[in-house]
Amino acid sequence: MRAPLDNQIKSLCRRVKKADKNAASELLKIYYADIYSYLRRLCGSRHDAEDLTQQTFLKVWSSLDGFAGRSKFSTWLYRIAHNTYLDWLRKNTIRNQANTDQWWQECIDQNPDPFANAAERQLAQRLYEAVDELDEDRKHVVHLHYYQGLSIRETAKVLDIATSTVKYRLREVFKVLRVKLGVQEAGFNQKQTIPIAKGESL
Amino acid sequence: MNTQKKIEKCLKSAPKPATPDGLLNRLQEDVAAGEIKKRVTVIRRWFAPANDSISPWRVAATVAIAILLLMPLSYGATKLVEKCYITFKATFIYPEPEDITESEGGYEGRVAGYGVMGGFSGSADLSEKEAMEMAEEIRKLCAEGKAEEVEPGVWMVTLSNGKKIHFGGADPEFMALTDVEKNKLLKKQFDEINELRKAGKFERTFIKEIEINGVMHRFYEDSFTLSDGKVIKMGAGEPVKDDNKD
Fold first, then answer.
1. What is the pLDDT of residues B181-194, one digit of tens each?
2. B179: nearest CA partner in chain A
């Protein structure tokens, strides 16, 4: 997500509240790709992700008046997307199992460049697969914090949990991932502090 | 780099799924199709800017402005239908007068009682009871955010019987103001009205005496001339006291 200025976003929100379609269009251009990728990774289906993205923005337009600006617009938007996904998940549990795909496969096939070599690419694939197998609570913190680049605080706000809970879940995630990747626990117990972002740590 | 850092790096650099062709257009179509719901929210926002309970002060201010500035509208709202505006006014006073407090910037603590809804189209042939019911339904629809802004400052609600009622209206000058400016202007006018009211500098016209919840009330139209020359007419109602019964 490119980082638009807060003031720019606030101004756009004010204009959208006055039914300015150009401003709504601008907001869409800024955020739609991030919201789509968030939902695409979560729901495991391109078509469902498109629908969920659409539902998310429809909810945004209909409830923007309720957005008081106490949190960042992006946090509020992710919260709506997250809840939209949860609603969908509740209604589609059985269908999900049959129709999910591996989002990363498509990405890696289309763009293998981010990986230095085949070993790294293979590691990435195993990792993303392992994340997908996490329980929902743990999965969400990874998606929001790592995949979407939200801070610990923003992740906590989206999930409506304490920042300490986010940190706890991330620590748990790392334990699971290490096991899944076949890494010896002993080697990791030596250092438990993981720099997550500037000013934040687990 | 240890494995933990590798994991973290890998997660942070997760590839981003490409957005499908046409998705942005699809989302833009929703915008173009009017899914930005100013129509639903404008009146609610005005009445309850903090997205909580409806503010009587704002209701009164809005309807007062509607009467004052917006009467010369060209459609049905140009008529001020006596029965309807009196009963509408009454619904704001009762049955919860305790909700109305001076802290809300009200008009002598009973501001909601002074709001007058200016003209519901097509309501002239209603009975008192029908008018009261209609007024209450309109009030509820507004409170639920179901009033649709059909043109700047003019709202429409669809009643349960399918009838469409227009109300409000605004002069372009007022509607061109920001919400903050509108608030400021209305507050200023209300402050001045309060002063004029205290000083007895207004003209009162008796309109009607009606019974509400078993208590007889008198309703008036008070006319205030502000320092800028604007004349504001507001409804006023009060229970009939013993000394007024003659």
1. 665 676 677 677 77
2. A18
Backbone angles phi, psi at B212, to 5 degrees: -130, 125
pLDDT digits (tens, 9 = 90+) for B122-169: 334 455 556 556 666 766 676 666 777 666 556 677 888 887 776 654
The SS3 of residue B72 is: coil
Q: How crowded is residue B134: how many other Cβ atoms within 10 Å of its Cβ?
A: 24
Determine which helix (DSSP H) or strand (DSSP E) holds B111, and give its type and residue range.
none
Closest CA to B15 of A28, A188, A21, A37: A37
- Among B44, B59, B54, smallest CA distance to B111 is for B59
CA distance B233 to B231: 6
Q: Any idea what DSSP says for residue B30?
A: H
Partners of residue B220 on adjacent β-strands:
B206, B236
Residue contact A49–B17, C-beta within 8 A: yes
User: CB distance from A179 to chain B under 8 Å?
Assistant: no
Mutation target among B23, B51, B150 for the A interface, most CBs of A within 10 A = B23
Per-residue tokens: A172: 């748990």
Q: Which residues of B touch A147 (CB under 8 A)?
A: 11, 14
Residues in B touching A66 (Cβ below 8 Å): 51
Residue among A191, A141, A146 nearest A166 (CA):
A141
- The whole-angstrom separation of Cα A27 and Cα A158 is 19
| DSSP structural state of residue B54 | P
